[in-house]
Structures are given as structure tokens and as C-alpha cells.
Design brief:
The protein is of the alpha/beta class. About 30% of the residues lie in helices and about 25% in strands.
Length: about 375
């Protein structure tokens, strides 16, 4: 079938992206689902830094490629072997499929699925197939999803069924921003009622982390960012304190204000400076969790002695260390109860033709979460 999709053919084009236009809307061909695959109609797709990091070259992926990985969709057709989904079901995409058989999957850590990681790096679906073509030439899949398109063929293991009563524009946020930000809080085994917590980097994932901290019962929640607008947004969302990361004395002020540092610091900016700041404001015996994705070449120098002498914990968390089939329904339930107001993260609704403008907002830090409405 012919579909309209946003295709990235050249990496490293400079901003403003509305001028350089790295994403071009093209008519391309999408083949039907194979075994254990599903054809979905994209209803809403979020714009995330993981998309921008491919455009600017920080995350190396094969091109041409249809970007987009955070989406809510409606099932149109199921391939052979898919028995638990049917036409009309509402689903959320997950950007790491779970094979269910490798060592990480077998130990309950599907975010680290090894075949999915290989497929994502190669630009294929979990099966190794490519279902996109342009004038007979293969077009690569982004993280097994390629949601910047009217339709997508994906692995069944890249989908989680959701309540059909949930707005699809809100549902899109659960596949990445919420799964990562809330998941990092819920699954790090450190955020308990009464703890103090800081979030460094207030994009969609960081703001979701604030919502997660509120839901978990943190007594003091500190938002940290370079943008005064985002600091104001964090306060409206429920942060008890905010600090500007551009202040040379930012770390010292937070340590003083919290009488020794926070119990848990979450880094969600994807930069070495942010990770260093998060570690420095974590108290003795505390936990620093990082979910940001810096450049693969980035290095960080730390005081190794502090890990032992101060009994620190430093943890990486990919996709919030989540089990998507377990966690997404839980977070949707909390949202419906009013305990996880994910809808507040949505700052911009875009037409498909505005996708490069959306990338500019993301690059400039003037949006929290933007969603393309199809």
C-alpha cells in the first residue's frame, strides 16, 4: 500500500530545520504484515529527542529512514500467528521489542532485549525484515516503529494494547516519555514516600519523572533546567523547588537547601554536565539514576571513592527499566484515576506538515511534548 511518511535521507543538516528540512514528506510503499507482525494506522505520534539525535547525527542510524517511535495507533490487520489483537484495537508502540527468549527477556528485563537491540541498530523489524520501500529501494525502520507515517507495519512485540477509552493523543505519550520518566522513578527501587528527589533536564521525560515522583509520594521534588520557562512549567506540574542549571553555584545551593543533597537524583537531559550535576547533588547513601542518552563518544570523570566511602548508587535506566506490558496499563490506570496527569505534558499539537517546525522547538527547548495528530 502507498502511505505518506516523513523520510530522513541526509544526516547532519543544520537548524533551523524548517529551512533545511531534514524530514521530507514522501509517498512510499508499505508491505503487509508478515508472521507475528501487525499493520497499524497511526493516530498520534510524539516527537522525542531520540528522533532529533538521529537527525543531528548523535545517534547513528542507517538512512534513508522513517523516524518516529512514540505513538498510539489502531490495528488494521494482523499477520499470521497474531491471535491476541484484532482490527480496531487501540495500541501503544514500544521502541524496544521483546523477543521473550534472550537472557535479558528471560530474567524480566525486556528493555535490554538483545535481538531487538540488534534490529534497532540495523533499521529492521524484530524479524530482520524491512517493510518500507521507496521506488523499489528499502527504507529503514526507526526503532522498529517508524511512527512518522500514516501507517506502519511492526512486530507484535512492539505493541501494547490499551483501553479504547483513552484519548489516542494522550496514549502516544505512554510509549516513551511516560514509560521512561515514570518508569525510572517506579522501577529504581529508591523512590519511596517521604524521600527528596531532583530531576535534571525538564523535557518530556524529565517532566514525566516529576509526575512519577508525585505519584510515588516524594516529599520534596526539585526541578532543574537551563530554561526559566521549563522551571515555571515544573512548578505548575507540582515541583516544590526549582533551580537553574546555568547558575555556577547550582549544585552547592541544592545541597545546602536539602541539608546534604537529595535522596534520589534523576538525570534526563542526555548530557555529561547534567549527569555530573545529578551525581553531585545526591546525598551520601543516595541514588543517582540516569535515563538521558548522550553522544556515544561522551565520557564522564567521577570520584570513584565516593561510591564506596559514601555508599552511593549510580544506575542506568533504559526505557525506565520497564516491563511495558505490565507498566503501560498501570500508568494508564493511574492517569484515569487522576493520579498521573500525563495530559499536562502535551504542549503542542501539530499537523504532519509541521514536523520540521516541531524539531526546531525540540532543539530550542521551547516544548515539553509535541504530538503529531494524523
Amino acid at each position: 500500500m502507498k502511505i505518506r511518511a516523513a523520510v530522513l535521507r541526509e544526516v547532519g543538516l543544520p537548524p533551523p530545520y524548517v529551512t533545511s528540512a531534514p524530514l521530507v514528506l514522501e509517498e512510499i510503499e508499505l508491505t503487509p504484515p508478515g508472521r507475528d507482525e501487525v499493520l497499524i494506522r497511526i493516530a498520534a505520534a510524539g516527537i522525542c529527542h531520540s528522533d532529533l539525535s538521529v537527525i543531528d547525527g548523535n545517534r547513528i542510524r542507517p538512512v534513508p529512514m522513517v523516524l518516529g517511535h512514540e505513538a498510539a495507533a489502531i490495528v488494521e490487520e494482523v499477520g499470521e500467528g497474531v491471535t491476541d489483537l484484532r482490527k480496531g484495537d487501540h495500541v501503544v508502540t514500544v521502541f524496544v521489542a521483546s523477543c521473550g527468549c534472550c537472557a535479558p527477556c528471560a530474567t524480566g528485563r525486556p528493555a535490554l532485549c538483545e535481538p531487538a537491540a540488534s534490529a534497532n541498530g540495523a533499521g529492521t523489524l524484530l524479524s530482520g525484515s524491512v517493510r518500507l520501500r521507496s521506488r523499489g529501494v528499502p527504507v529503514n525502520h526507526h526503532l522498529g516503529v517508524s511512527a512518522f507515517a500514516e501507517y506502519a507495519t511492526v512486530s507484535r512485540r512492539s505493541l501494547v494494547k490499551i483501553d479504547s477509552e483513552l484519548s489516542l493523543e494522550h496514549g502516544a505519550l505512554f510509549g516513551c516519555a511516560v514509560l521512561t520518566g515514570v518508569g525510572a522513578v517506579a522501577n529504581c527501587d529508591a523512590v519511596r514516600p517521604g524521600v527528596t528527589m531532583a530531576v535534571v533536564g525538564l523535557g518530556g521525560v524529565g517532566m514525566a519523572g516529576i509526575l512519577g515522583a508525585i505519584a510515588a509520594g516524594a516529599s520534596r521534588i526539585i526541578g532543574i533546567d537551563l530554561s526559566s520557562e521549563k522551571l515555571d512549567f515544573a512548578r505548575r506540574l507540582g515541583a516544590t523547588d526549582v533551580f537553574n542549571a546555568g547558575d555556577n553555584d547550582c549544585a552547592e545551593k541544592i545541597v545546602e537547601a536539602t541539608q546534604g543533597g537529595v535522596d534520589v537524583a534523576l538525570e534526563a537531559a542526555g548530557s555529561v554536565h547534567a549527569l555530573d550535576l545529578a551525581y553531585r547533588i545526591t546525598r551520601r547513601g543516595g541514588t543517582t539514576v540516569t535515563v538521558g542518552l548522550p553522544s556515544p563518544s561522551a565520557k564522564w570523570s567521577m570520584n570513584a571513592l565516593s561510591l564506596v566511602a559514601e555508599e552511593r548508587t549510580l544506575k542506568g535506566s533504559y526505557i525506565g527499566t520497564s516491563v511495558p506490558v505490565r507498566d503501560i496499563p498501570r500508568y494508564v490506570s493511574l492517569f484515569k484515576q487522576g493520579r498521573l496527569p500525563v495530559d499536562k505534558l502535551l504542549t503542542h499539537r501539530l499537523n504532519f506538515s509541521e514536523i520540521n517546525q516541531g524539531m526546531d522547538r525540540l532543539h530550542d527547548g521551547t516544548a515539553v511534548r509535541q504530538v503529531i495528530i494524523f
